[in-house]
Amino acid sequence: MNDQFQSIDQIKATAIDMLLKFGPKVLVATAIMVAGHFVGRWLGRMFEQLLVRFKLEAPVRSLLVRIAYLIVLVLFAIMALQNLGVELLPLIAGLGVAGAGIALAMQGLLGNIVAGLTIIFAKPFHVGDYISIGNEEGEVLDVTLFSTTLGHTDRSKVVIPNRKIVGEILHNYGKVRQLPLSVGVAYGTDIDMALATIDEILRANPRVLQEPAPVVGVQRLADSSVTLCVSPWVAVPDYVAASGEVNKAILEVFRAKGVAIPFPQHEVRMLGNPAP
Question: Which CATH class is domain 125-174?
Answer without folding.
Answer: mainly beta
